[in-house]
Every structure is written in C-alpha cells, then in structure tokens.
Design brief:
With about 140 residues, the protein is mainly beta. It has one helix and 15 strands; from the N terminus they run E-E-E-E-E-E-E-E-E-E-E-E-E-E-E-H. The longest helix is centred in the C-terminal third of the chain and has 7 residues, at about 135-140.
Length: about 140
C-alpha cells in the first residue's frame, strides 16, 4: 500500500562520499551533496551561500552539530541539527539532540530524543531575522 521513498539528495549528484570505513575527527565544511556512510566526530557545516545536502546513510553516524540547508538522516546523529530549508528523518534515523527546521518530514520508525523547533519559534525577546540569535547558516539563508 505504501511505497518506500528512495533517499536521495535534492541537488542531484553526490559530490563527496565518506565511506563506511572512514572516521573523520574534526569539522567538515562542504557544498553540494555530501553522503556519509562512515563516521564524523565534529561539526558538519555547509558553505555560506551554497546549495548543500547532507545525507546520513543507515550505517553512518555524526557526533556534533549540523548546519546544512537540506538534511536527510537515516543513521545515528548525536547533536543539534539546524536544517534551515528542510529535514527528512527516514525510518532508521536515530537522533539525540534538538532539530531546528523550516520543513520536516518524519517516516514511521524514526526516533528523536530531543525537541523539534520550528524556525519561527524563537524564544520571546530574541530578534527573529537579524541573525543575532541564529546559527551562522540561518542568518545567511534569510539574507
């Protein structure tokens, strides 16, 4: 009755692949499509002003903050996610941390231990669009 939707980046081609035998300790800054089957211990941040899609495969994991326009998670994520365009939590997604988003899609089976925070749901008294209370990537997305 329901079809399984393939997990694929919105920008087309995968520009960078982190294979299942790879562990990166440190921050990753990228643009285009990043597909992670391995492990990252550090921040994952999209280049300012560039289109970027992060896809975390079922066997992949990230321990650190993520700031990317489009995020697709089907693996393990520990840390806050700032998806300033949209985020997709696939069936095998296991997220421990807060998810900040504009659009969210969550498949049956995905697990989130944390809060879903809509981009417009800023704490009272904080500026909404000047970037002062937002991660660097959010400020550039609204500009």
């Amino acid at each position: 009755m329901f079809k399984t939707k393939p997990i694929r980046p919105d920008v087309g081609a995968i520009d960078t692949l982190i294979g299942p035998q790879v562990t990166i300790r440190g921050d990753v800054v990228f643009s285009g499509g990043l597909y992670v089957e391995g492990h990252i211990q550090g921040k994952v941040i999209a280049e300012t002003g560039e289109r970027a899609v992060l896809t975390l495969a079922e066997q992949g994991s990230i321990e650190g903050e993520v700031q990317v326009p489009v995020v697709v998670i089907n693996g393990r994520m520990t840390g806050d996610v700032h998806a300033f365009d949209r985020i997709e939590l696939a069936a095998k997604a296991r997220v421990q941390g807060n998810v900040h988003y504009k659009v969210v899609e969550m498949s049956a089976g995905a697990q989130l231990t944390g809060r879903l925070v809509h981009a417009d749901a800023l704490p009272a008294g904080l500026p909404s669009h000047d970037g002062a209370a937002l991660p660097e990537a959010w400020a550039t997305a609204d500009a």
